[in-house]
Amino acid sequence: MQEKESFLGKITLFSELTEEERKQVGDILHYRHYKKGEVIVSEGDEGTSLFLFQKGVVQVTSQITLKRTGDDKWMEAEKSIATYDEVKMPFFGEMSLLTGAPRSATVKAMTDVELYEVFQKDFYDLCERNHTIGYKLLKAIAQVLCGRIRSLNQNILKLTTALSIVVSKKR
Known about the structure:
By secondary structure, the chain is of the alpha+beta class. It has helices at 4-9, 19-26, 94-99, 120-129, 131-169; strands at residues 29-34, 39-41, 49-55, 57-67, 74-85, 91-92, 106-109, 113-119. The chain starts with a helix and ends with a helix.
């Protein structure tokens, strides 16, 4: 297991923190290990933490409702949204960390996974004790969320364009 401060220095979320600030963040990290196939978080569950990848691969899925082929019945299905690792997405759960909102997706270990968990109470206590750390981390999380919103907006535009093409061809 890497030293926590060294580990944090490799994650962009913590890149603006000094070594001493990373040490303070390291003090609130809780090591977690999940075996291949284990569910880390489930969609809809209470969420009050963020997870940082040390190593491993996870699959992110969400429930969707689909119309069954050949009849008017609807069914629930699980849709894979993404596969993440420490390079693609070094952390997840930031929405639940900030808001305490229920988990928006299910995250399952595709390999053995090592994570650090940051609990909301510990995070906000640290931000209160050290406003500089709080500012730097909230700014970094906001930048990540803005990037994700921008990407989602582009996806929505593509989907609505495709839908309008399909609908216009049926007329």
